[in-house]
Here is the input.
Amino acid sequence: MKLFAIFGDPVSHSRSPIMHNSVFKNLNYKACYTRVHLKDGSKLKETFFNLGLSGANITVPHKEAAYEACDEIRGFASKVGVVNTIINENGKLIGYNTDADGFMFAIEEFGHVGKVLILGAGGTAKALASRFLQDDIKVDVINRSEGRLSYFKDIGCTCHTWENFESKKYDLVVNTTSAGLKDEELPAPLEILESVLANTNFVADAIYGKLTPFLKLAKKKNITFKDGADMLLGQGVLANELFVNKELKKENIKIQMQKSFEL
Ligand code: NDP
Here is the structure.
């Protein structure tokens, strides 16, 4: 029996255990998935091996620590320095990022997206910004503090703090901050969000399972919006494929994972 887990702080809200366990149970794959509340990201590797895990997902705020903990990084994760999936390959930790492609899957229904504003500058924002640029989508980023913006400037995004922001016309505004996850905070001051929402076609939030204050505001203004559930599904299917090392068909993983959203 293989054991998998999600690491995060907080982590009790995570739907990953139910998603992955549904796949394992219904497709008769001998594995179990649990959650680990990890406060100190530097303890990730040690905790992973102490628990005898075969693989794991990493959520807020440890995705950059996960990148540091890995022995090898593969694919898109090496471009962004952010890891959300780790695999134990013969005692070595291999890091991947499945968030960005999961998000692209989620916004397919919005049609053409040419210009995006990202709220926040953490691990998820890095992955999405880099993935958008790969598809020639123009990216603006706004964060409450200056410190984390240098990465985004270097890869070609237009960057702002709350103090120097000027709203433009966007196709999509995405909240990647954790404001609204465990509180009722907005991801930026109301006057900034009012001007942004007056100038966008679509809104998305990476947070799932609740209508965040940001999405409530978008709803009030009749803007088409979606929460992070489809992103969660997309990243989960891709992570599960890595966990089972292609022993299960992707389409079957997706069907079982999608069913778990009804539980
Ligand atoms: P990080 O901790 O790496 O980054 C958090 C960002 O949010 C930082 O830019 C931080 O700003 C900002 N922030 C935090 N609190 C506030 C606040 N009260 N007001 C304004 N800005 C704030 O987090 P991640 O990128 O890993 O995750 C972000 C969110 O995305 C989480 O809620 C997570 O659950 C969700 N998520 C959902 C996924 C899905 O599948 N649906 C996948 C991945 C993430 P500063 O730099 O100033 O500290």
Remarks:
- The CA atoms of residues 12 and 137 lie 34 Å apart.
